[in-house]
Design a protein that fits this description.
Layout: H1 11-34, E1 58-63, E2 66-69, E3 75-78, E4 81-86, E5 107-109, E6 112-116, E7 119-123, E8 126-128, E9 137-138, E10 141-145, E11 148-152, E12 155-156
Antiparallel strand pairs: 1-4, 2-3, 4-11, 5-8, 6-7, 9-12, 10-11
Length: about 160
């Protein structure tokens, strides 16, 4: 058996007990606030770098008009043209619906890709009246030249 322990305290000590309890709980609350975890902040990785774009260089070559004379004496004039050279391959031709022919003399000129404002632009096909009864249309075209692509304008021959 354990003996009972009796504490004898003075009236002054008994009066201080609530004050000590209050001070102890205040100190406990103060230090509890200081001991709390710091506010967390979400830190994210820097944004990914933008995708690399293929650098396309453009060169324009101007060819003066030329006149060719056939052995039969017929002259053919090749108009002055601007040839565009780019390093990006042209897209595949787009399928297009051929509209009704306005007259039997009209010729259908198929659509093609051209280069404008540093990008390919589709030019839709259309009907056109030849400049002469024996004129033939030489369609515009892209030709690969090494690592670049050269554009030749279409013309009436």
């Amino acid at each position: 058996m354990m003996p009972n322990i009796i504490r004898l305290t003075s009236p002054v000590a008994r009066a201080r007990q609530p004050l000590l309890a209050l001070a102890g709980s205040g100190a406990l609350l103060f230090f509890a606030g200081c001991a709390s975890e710091p506010e967390s902040h979400r830190v994210s990785a820097p944004p990914p770098s933008p995708p690399t774009q293929q650098v396309t260089t453009t060169t324009t070559i101007t060819t003066p008009a030329t006149v060719a004379v056939s052995p039969s004496g017929q002259t053919t004039t090749m108009p002055a043209t601007s040839t565009i050279v780019v390093t990006q391959a042209p897209p595949a031709l787009q399928p297009e619906a051929v509209l009704a022919q306005p007259s039997s003399r009209h010729v259908w000129l198929a659509g093609y890709w051209t280069w404008r404002d540093d990008r390919y632009e589709w030019r839709a096909g259309h009907w056109e009246m030849p400049p002469g009864s024996s004129s033939t249309w030489v369609a515009p075209r892209w030709e690969q030249d090494g690592n670049s692509y050269r554009f030749y304008e279409g013309y009436w021959n």
